[in-house]
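debug: dumping io for the single-chain case to check the tokenizer round-trip. Nothing else runs in this session.
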Amino acid sequence: MDLQDYRKTIDEIDSRLIRLITERMDVVSSIAEYKKKNSLPVLDSGREKEKLLSVLEATPDDLKEYTPLFFSLLFELSRSYQNRRNGNLSPLAEDIKRAVNNTPQLFPSNVSVACQGVLGANSQIACDKLFRYPKTMFFSSFEAVFSAVDKGLCDYGVIPVENSSAGSVNSVYDLMMKHHFYIVRSIRLKVDHNLMAKPGVRLEDIRTVYSHEQALHQCSAFLSTLENVRLIPCENTAAAAKKVSESSLDDVAALASEPCAEYYGLNCLASSVQNTDNNYTRFICISKKLEIYPGADRTSLMMILPHTQGSLYKTLSRFYALGINLNKLESRPLPNKEFEFMFYFDLDTPVYSPALLQLMGELPTICDKHQYLGSYSEVF
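debug: decoded output
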């Protein structure tokens, strides 16, 4: 036999598989109807475990690592099909539908917004792009921003979650586990770092540069060209600019965003000095209330999965079975738990998709604990 003969045989086998899968799903449909009529849960863990063991016993040794994966995916698809046939919607799915119907058509323009840092911080720049007339309140930490929103001191908060060169802001992901909130929008902001000093100070006069630790790292190539210069980290870039403006010294400079020069009366000595021009930070806008504005095409979830073999694989299989694309997967260790993690997912799917609502109904069956973080759109 040549290759074409083998392929023809494979095609014939696949045709039989399709007929068998169709026949199996017909029976699954009947099972779904029976379970609905008799108020039985879709998931029967004992039956699935028993079935996998029988599959293993019937499988040749050289295929034992493959067939359980195949049947596990088949079980995921069967459960998904049963939920779809029965129209199962969880309370969370109902909340999402209500939010879609009740949220105003237009994003708010004149509201109170919490930001970390001081005037000129990148969080404030992101805030000004999200809201037309924000009443911005500044706080010293990300924790304080979450608390301000949680206590109703501010309507919204703007928080950075990841940078294209420095990666995720891990402390924010830890705070996500602690606070209950919803993401209502996100924005991807291009970040340019500029070296600025007080009027009259020249580049060759500089002996100390202040900025956020990440900004200093992102401008390492430029900073290496400056001779005899100390690099001192600050809590953020805007605070660095403020520190320089208030300093009695004339040999200090800051790496900060362009608006900081105007806010703090500084002169720009060098523009866009970051190592790469492709430097973006993603910010999320959070609210205590569930609001879903028109055009929401991204959903964020946090899940604590069982500490068992294949739990993440089964979750990803469910996304695949429902045709839901995954934009981001992040894991964070759970405090005081050994080898247990929280997984953060960004799903690329419209909030109006029946598949997303179905997934919301199936979450309790695929994870120990979950938190829906919102459905929203991202602006640039």
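debug: round-trip ok. The chain has a mean pLDDT of 90.
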